Amino acid sequence: MGNKFLSLALTAGLMLPAVTPAVAATPAIQSVQFKGMPAPTTVEEMAKPYSTASVEVTYAGGAKKTFPLSYKELYKTSDGLISLKGKKIAAGTPLDVKGNPITDKSVTDLPVTYVSDCPDANSLLQPIDKNLYLVTHLEYTSVDSTGHDAWRRIPASMVLSKLDQDKKTGELKVAKADKIDVSSIDGIWVPCNGSLSPWNSHLSSEEYEPDARQFELEENLPADEKANRIHKGEFDRNNTREFARLYFGVESKANPYLYGFPSEVTVSADGKAKVVKHYSLGRRSNELMVVMPDNRTAFFGDDGDYTMLFMYVADKEKDLTSGALYAARFTQTGTENGGSGNLTWIKLGHATDSEVRTLIDKGVKFSDIFETASEPQEGFTAVKQYSSERSEYKRVEYLKVKPGMEKAAAFLEPRRFGAILGATSEWNKMEGLAINKKDKVLYVAISDQSKGMEKDSKGEDPTDHIQLPKRKSGVTYAMKLTGSQQDLAGNAIPSAYVGASIAGLIIGEDLKEADAYGNTANVDKIASPDNLSYSEELRTLFIGEDSSLHVNNYVWAYNIDTGALSRILSVPAGAEATGLSFANDRNGFAYIMSNFQHPGDEVAKKKITAVDPQALMNALAASPYGILKSGGVGYIQGLPSLTSMVNTSK
């Protein structure tokens, strides 16, 4: 890439805190550079979300001015924002299929409503009749009233917030909030990250899909063994039945093939939300999906270990109800700076939403799709992939697709089917994605480069396409997109945004021993990149961390032209930085949406000597969020408006 310069006109003042007066029109902007903040060093800093970063604006003529950034909370998940049947309930409250709050009965005679502490994806929609709406995921609930793990047991939810916007400063406040009705899609399973489509709809997700093979194995157990497992708490390893009991009221509606798909949320002019699940996009551990500028091609983050890189090409623009699904084979070309390789795409099949949903409604089971063997046999393919992680059978499966079941395999079990066809199922913790439209580059976050991405020195894996050095702090990759590509069978792929190659862009640095603050990765480099969002206007990639290697997780700004890396937000110790999305020109203002979830998680296990660890735990417990009690939904404010701009290069 050549040198790039931005010429930006500041047309609508600055988005500053509410106490700052409006700013009159100013000269054209030549460049914008983030100035980072140091890592927190005190108990007070470590226990709260905050920013002391800034933005330096250089105007035409060379004059410079610095604008401070700060963190603005919109709401806590424990705040009583939702009106339901004449009462106010917490924003993080999950609802059942009838719209009633789901009750935590883990403490005898003391039932309480579950409240999620884990806000994730944010989509700040483009103004609808000048009104601003925010769609936010409540990914899961960390613990129940007894303190036991509740992850992936409790039905999840989404919130639609109507926001008031200060016309002078751009400050946002929640005017009204409602739960989005997900009964039409049978509830929602672990909605992690998400994205805003080019046509202004929110694209949701369902990660860590339940394993249909394990579910069926349990269904076929003899009654006495099933009863014994239930007594020992060893039954329902995927929590599919528990989910159904809490959401539908009956376990008989449990079906693993209902979950693991992206959904689309549209908001009408009257502020009503409608949600549709897109089954033709394929079932996987959907971290999120991102649609390319052609309004047809999409890529997916497939979270977990031994996962796969997928691409979808819709039949029509702005219509995700039918299309072709592809899986990538990785051919490694290097190991430096996170590694590199070329991509070859294997077409898994073509389907419509209704075709796949019909298969589910007919009750198709894993055993209807695949034959299995317990050891290598002719005609069977050895497969190792994520969804069998919580199963009791061997991680390496020997599978054969039954005649006529290729479509079911392609869209209900695309990872298993893709591996049979030769696609690479060795990616680990594939998280966020973000598109750089001008350069035709897709950024991909690998939160933890280990396990399947390492060289298989023990010969335990069926394939070993990826052979990279272990880097627990992860890698952010850049994938080059191009057109005129063919799939493995030699057929043209009808897209100008096909992934051709991928190479490391930003790497973390693991530490051999923890530092005084308990960090096991370099605190001045990114550890475990997760959420990604890209600003075309700023030529900046924003990166949010989901790291146990940093005691405090951060949001970073990375200038792709200069390589400058700036820390711009710190979230409470133990919390994950989530819901990251850059939103420009929302009625003339720009925002970096950013949430945090599960504050205080695992902090007690850290070896911290720089501050009093008990004082830190006390501060976290006394904060408005508590420890695993509540999460925060908010944004970084202080950005200049970027509504009028001219890009030049030389």
Automatic annotation (TrEMBL):
InterPro entries: PhoX. The keyword Signal applies. Keywords: Signal. The keyword Transcription regulation does not apply. Residues 1-24 form the signal peptide. PANTHER family: DUF839 DOMAIN-CONTAINING PROTEIN, SLR8030 PROTEIN. This is DUF839 domain-containing protein. It comes from Heliomicrobium gestii.
